[in-house]
Fold this sequence. Notes:
By secondary structure, the protein is α/β, with parallel strands linked by helices.
Amino acid sequence: MRDKLYIDGQWRAPAAGGTVEVINPSTEEVIHRIAAAGAEDVDLAVKAARRAFDDGSWSKLTGTERAKYLRAIAAGIRERQAEIARLEVVDNGKPFPEADWDVGDAAGCFDFYAGLAEELDAHPEEAIALPDARFTSKAVKEPVGVAGAIIPWNYPLLMAAWKVAPALAAGCTVVLKPAEVTSLTALELADIADKAGLPAGVLNVLTGPGSVAGQAIIDHPDVDKLAFTGSTAVGSKIMATAARDIKRVSLELGGKSPFVVFEDADIGEAVEWIMFGIFWNQGQVCSATSRVLVQEGIYERLLERLVEETRKIRIGDGLAEGTLLGPLVSKKQYDCVQAAVQKARTEGAKVLTGGGRAPGFDKGYYFEPTVIVDPPLDGETWNEEIFGPVVCVRPFSTEEEVVRLANHSRFGLAAAVMSKDNARAERVAAAFRAGIVWINCSQPTFTEAPWGGYKQSGIGRELGRWGLENYLETKQITRFA
Ligand code: TAP
């Protein structure tokens, strides 16, 4: 199944027959070969999804009926949780406990949207009050149609769940393309959905390079909606392509999120959250709080503690007991992170710890957790996403100054503030121009709460009831007399 595409309820070889090597980032060994889908395969998958949508075999089921399938998928994921988590580790590199958490969360996401599918039945329509008594009007929700979902490599199964679960709950059919470097667990998801009895064509999973398979999905005229998570550069391309057919688009893109620490914060707690905010998943997190701003009074002491704790992080294979930081996902990502640190040095920033290959590893894409200080405010290091375990730290003096510094970014995905002064923390939280704001913490993510960015970090919101809206149209029905 791993070298096949899942189209119309069947495992098929790609029409043109190509494959892509899957490399374990810890050992650099080829562990599998996945199929490289081409435009012909995408066309077959979209036609299958179109048919499954148009014939009503999925879209016209009640929400309660669809919820049964979603819950069966959640149960199927949980049944194989440890096995899928191990697969995620060898594919992506992340430590097993993180992968295990992701897989459990993906199952939870299917259960959550099963609940929202049932709620659609409970509230099938909304009456609209009109000023003219001769008319009555109501609004009903209907699924958008065929959804094309394109996802990145940092949370392979979880990102699939964030898109597939709400789309299926709404009554849409889906063509999913995982990132070519981490496709294995998306194929497992197809297998689980198949075993759960999901009707043919409702979910199709196509592996292969984005420039071919992804491009064919965004170009396809029969795809009604595109849901994308990835880089701002590809997101921008997707939006431009979608404009031609007025496809619905939701985008979850990059970030360079600030973490503001006021001098009344507990230094130990602040350091723990700063490290969690940047080293979790090797820093390959869109919402990573990678720009840390610390008030002058505690700047030196906090830095000292941060460097000391960062040097203690246990680096290793994701399957080894006690590993806190695994390898980066790919050689390409390793090279990007290394180049970003090199750039920081040429910009005049100081690398206090880390900055290169983790000592003791002659194989694998292991990058040391890195702390950088004094990057110039107008430089790349401070402003561009590094997407690795690299944190940049700067001091600030006043609240007014730090709000300005935090918001001075083309991104606006997340932001965090730490202070014992609740009123100040709330003031700063309100002033952040970002879609996700954390007070006294960084990164906690809940399926129930909206997720998405301001500015160039994206359009639309995933998760919670907002995530379901992405896949629904609103229809007005008005009657005379
Ligand atoms: P991208 O290169 O943008 O890739 C994301 C997905 O798009 C992959 O499946 C990729 O396929 C596909 N793709 C590439 N070119 C395409 C094209 N021309 N048409 C259609 N699809 C195409 O990003 P990445 O390297 O996977 O992830 C890193 C970036 O994603 C970072 O900037 C990060 O911030 C962002 N990200 C954001 C979030 C959220 S929630 N906002 C979450 C994760 C990542 P292939 O990789 O198979 O070529």
